[in-house]
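Lab meeting minutes (informal)
Scribe: AK
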Amino acid sequence: MKMAVLRQLEAQASTGDGKACLALYEEYNNRPEQDYARRWLDRALACDEPHAQFIEGVKSLIDGDTRCGIQFLKLAAENRSNEAKYVLSQYYLGNVRSICPPDELDTEQGLEYLFEAAQGGYVDAQILLGKMYCSGKWVGHSQFLARYWLETAVRQNSRQAQLLLDQIDLVHNGLN
């Protein structure tokens, strides 16, 4: 990024612009100035920037601090982060590297987050719902709803969803 753009972002960030703080974090995160990057992430968190909350949640999960990670992901989800809702759905359904203790597995909560993410336009959630309705796992088997969610993802240019629809069509046509 050019120095002039960085200075402009720094000026915006100094006024409490969480998105500018986050952009600076992302710029410096892959450079030797990672301590500097961390300060920008902390400032984005102080501004209640949802994507910063999501990043902090995922970082905490990766670092093994599950409680802190889930708290940040819930905060991001409350701030309308569909990414966070999707990760939370995977956590509660037990699909995240087995980090969810058995007593916290919660299919109902997982499905709620998953539906919210899918309805919010998160393609991975739409694809997963399509797969779930196709297989009947966690939800009742429904070819109609499987197609609905996969077609919704296809409308967002998901090649993976299109391939899944093509496979469903091959199986269906082969049976007729």
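Next up, CB showed the second protein from the same session:
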Amino acid sequence: MIQENKINYFVTKIVTHAPNIKTIYLECRDGTGKAYTPVFRAGQFINVYFPETGTPEGKAYSISSAPHEDILAITVKAVGEFSNKLHQLKVGDRLTASMPYGYFYTETETSELVMIAGGISIAPFRSMILDSLQKKPNRKLALFHSSRTYDESIFRDEFAVLEKRFPNLKVFRYVTRDKVANVGIIHERLKIEDIIGTTDKAKLDIHTREFLICGSINFVGELWKGLRKAGVPEDVIYTESFFSH
């Protein structure tokens, strides 16, 4: 990325979801000091730069806020050098990052979306869900979120409220390690059969949906292969993978 694409953001708010997960709210300021939010699409990300790490290309973090919220936020799990540095930020701190970009989104607002997230990769789907419900309130949406622990199954309360308001939104949460009973949590591994509608958990017709998968390389690769084997056409599957950083 060229130097001109690097801009200064300022931390305006921090929300802690779990001991290792935070949402960091950011704003830009023009030459007069007036705050503004860069234009972005739901599903895009920013590259964050910490020159002292010796990684000049930076690291990408998905935007978890929706465009109509008029704020830019990233939701970060502390798992590596960059993410731990982000967790150390305080309100008022400056952060060097890129303008929003990326192509993890569909080109239509009318298809039924099936979103599949592994762990912290639920971040771009929060943006997509809020954006879709704001633009097309009756659009059918299904989110499958697999996390290791209950604490990492974030945005629970917010999505529960949205499910009550919008019957067309269905959220399915899978937790693979915690075995304590929790309302609304499925304590088993997410399976392709759950996603494509061969069980009662989600009756989804694979021929009228688009599928978006975000998570680790292994998570995305396994589910992509499973969807293709189940007969889902390749051109309706969108993927985005990430490394732990």
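CB comment: Confidence is low (pLDDT under 50) at residues 198-202.
No objections, moving on.
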